[in-house]
């Protein structure tokens, strides 16, 4: 019953996020033998100005 | 001082979410004898396309 | 498919934690009409010295 | 490689949040000797109606 | 700079968990074009008696 | 009512973690004008073999 939360800077299109769910689910399934049906993956999008790297937001760093 | 984070697919109306906060707070209070005043409940809403079940988003699954 | 994480200072016995899972699941079910089967509740226990309240650990505060 | 998630009721302006990232990063660096570059700080904003205190949302409590 | 938290019932051996980190990192890299170096994956192990499914702990359910 | 979760590789002594709680609480207080009393800081320690950086655990990377 693994549950993954993936924190991402916002801005990816829906297709990439759908692929992210599929790939991370599959990765967990392969690595720890959890049934695909039991896996949950939540994407938590974080705006650039809320994602701090080395003391500055990604926005300020120009990402 | 219990803190609960509840991850929900978005779409519930405000009344249900207010009730969710009340009910979960009360449940924690009853189960572990924590004073009502000390309990925090955060609702984290997740869009359908960010909530993956069995490798597909809830959106793709038609929820 | 609601998922709740409950952060608790460690020290409750197993019976109380089993009850916590049951009560919080039921509270979510009642409040937002989620099927009982779809609810996940994770208890994350935090040692007293890792739970900070008003700038001091619960251990230092004598809890 | 410390990672901090800071859950805040929404409504602070961008300047305060930029300062929050800088100050929390610095605090972690000073306290546990982690290099500034290795620290990540994520701000997760929670609407008033999703932040429950003592069984009621911050919105209902008039904050 | 994606960060994944994977919540797992405890009990997997170290080799599987090392593989989990490698596979989930790679999955994120492939899906959203994030550089491998920028990905963080945290495994949060949860004891059977703290992982609730449908109102009962995994321990009580006999897992 | 800010709540911070700080994920750390395990191994710091208690004094440093007490200082971490004090410093992070103060940083939040200063940056967003939250009363000291309202701040919660939780330290979530993660074993070296559960903290993945660039696809490898901190243990494997020799930290």
UniProtKB/TrEMBL annotation, chains A, B, C, D, E, F:
Q: Name the active site residues.
A: 2
An example of a Pfam family matching this protein is: Tautomerase
- Per its record, what are the GO molecular function terms? isomerase activity
Annotated signal sequence is none
Please state what class of enzyme this protein is. Answer: isomerase
Task: Identify the EC number(s).
Answer: 5.3.2.-
Q: Any idea where the 4-oxalocrotonate tautomerase-like domain is?
A: 2-60
For this UniProt record, the keywords arranged alphabetically read as follows: Isomerase
Q: Does the keyword Transcription regulation apply?
A: no
Q: Does the keyword Isomerase apply?
A: yes
Which PANTHER family does the record associate with it? 2-HYDROXYMUCONATE TAUTOMERASE (PTHR35530:SF1), TAUTOMERASE-RELATED (PTHR35530)
Family to which this protein belongs: Belongs to the 4-oxalocrotonate tautomerase family.
What this protein is called in its record is Tautomerase
| Organism of origin | Paraburkholderia dinghuensis
């Amino acid at each position: 019953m693994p549950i993954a939360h993936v924190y991402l800077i916002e801005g990816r299109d829906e297709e990439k996020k759908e692929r992210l769910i599929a790939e991370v689910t599959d990765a967990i399934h392969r690595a720890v033998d959890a049934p695909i049906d039991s896996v949950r993956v939540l994407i938590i999008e974080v705006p650039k100005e809320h994602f701090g790297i080395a003391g500055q937001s990604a926005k300020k760093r120009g990402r």
